[in-house]
Amino acid sequence: MLRLITSQQFLIRTLQTLFPAAALMASACYAQSSSASLKSGESVYQSVCLNCHAQAVDNAPKFGDKKIWAPLIEEGQAILTSHAWVGVRKMPPKGGKADLSQEEFARAVAYMARAAGGDWSDPDADMMKKIRHEEEKRLKDLKKGKD
Question: What's the pLDDT tens digit per position in 79-93?
Fold first, then answer.
């Protein structure tokens, strides 16, 4: 079976064979550039979240509504993002978009929180680690029957 690879993967594999130290540097550069290729929070909101959050469908917190978002923002970025990521109330996991990355999802949540007065930045590596940790806790709670 023929498997297609990206030009970055080809470059890294070639360098691994010829120059192992250079391959490590190329891998690091590729990892840094992949973050830049992620969709912005606004882009994800427009393509995924807007359908429910623009009109508060099924009581989704309405985009930009400071009163509705205030208690959610108080929960904190890691908790709110992780709970929404696994699904909460009538919201399906990943906002219903199975191929959405967790970082792109987190950017969309931060974008919506900022629109409602929150002072949240797009998640960096440390915040993503906290979000993943909260996700694990949330999934354990859900398995135990806690809401």
Answer: 999 999 999 889 999
CATH 1.10.760.10 residue ranges in the chain?
A: 41-143
Name the pTM for this structure.
Answer: 0.74
Residue 19 DSSP code: -
**What single letter denotes the amino acid at residue 29?**
C
By CB atoms closer than 10 A (0-12, 13-18, 19+), residue 59 is: exposed
Give the CATH number of domain 41-143.
1.10.760.10
Q: Which residues of the chain have pLDDT under 70?
A: 1-36, 147
Helix axes 66-75, 77-86, angle to 10 degrees: 100
- Angle between helical axes of 102-115 and 125-143 (0-180°, round to 10): 100
**Please, are residues 105 and 83 in contact by the beta-carbon 8 Å criterion?**
no
